[in-house]
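Hello,

I think I submitted the copper (II) ion job twice by accident. Can you confirm which output corresponds to this input? Input:
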Amino acid sequence: MSGLICDLPSLRSRQLTAIVDGTTTPAWAEGTSLHQLSTFETFGCDVAKASPPTPDRVTPDVSLVRKVHTGARVKMPDGVEVRFWGFEDPASGVSKPFPSPLIRVRKGQVVHTRLEASKKVHTIHHHGIEPLPFNDGVGHTSFETSGSYTYQWRPADAGTYFYHCHVNTVLHVEMGMYGLLIVDPPSGPGTLYEGGPAYDVEAFIVADDVDPRWHIVGQDDHHAGVCGGDPELDRFEPQYFLINGVPNPRTLTDPRCLIGARPGQRILIRLLNASYSDVRFRVMGLDATVHMQDARPLDGRYARPIPVPAGTALASGSAQRHDLIVVAGAPGTHVVRLEFRHWITGVVQGVAETRIVVA
Ligand SMILES: [Cu+2]
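Support: Only one job matched these inputs. Its output is below.
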């Protein structure tokens, strides 16, 4: 969380609420004081089951639901089945997805994300979006919920973000509680940001690494490592390397990973490092240019676009996002390669590869 604060009227003046809502009466907030809301500030071992109302709730432009599940299963190349958690969208009809379904809105929209948790506590943190703390989904600065809560937020900038649970974060994100979040400019998809580069094809590359031992620990104890004991979560030894929830090497053929384009088309790759490794990203045979990093434009005002010549590495740390544009050349196939390096030693622990097919 940086110094930029979303001007959404959460916990702010009733006047601003009225301006956004078009009414003079807030939906529910009369009489609810900051002091009362502060009683929801619970986290840690002894969590209360808080389901507070949303302060200064207004009529949203977009409403969506994310319901916690703990039952996704991914079969790894060696036959081992690993269990994941995540958020499902009841409106999509897709049960127990991994990673969690995309959230896509436009800059300036007022958004309500309704978290429906489970028997255990969770939150949703819209990473890189900057609402006031009560809507930020960081348990330590507000509350954790085993019931439900409607996060009210309004993105101030277009770009690539992600959302994730922020309870016992290192474990819950490893368990799969994350999904991409894209904020389009007001004009919608097709342009990265207002006045920014246009694209013809959009692709997502979400990197993840999996230590199956953590998934057994997490299954038994959502709060492992928080309340004493030593579940050995200081040791992370990933065995599987994934793109978009697909383990390598199925990434080379799975349609969830493959990128298709016609000659000359401009391909936007939205890269998210949802792993705990230092990822090195390469496109073989095609030049790329980074136009945004962590949803901030590299437009020459503060930083220039970063050229990534064919075959050279772009470094991406945990939780980083890069938006690259690649211009498809003549018909052919180009490997996209992700190396997962240990964050301290730099030793390559694994790779995941997919392909750009120009036809
Ligand atoms: Cu969680």
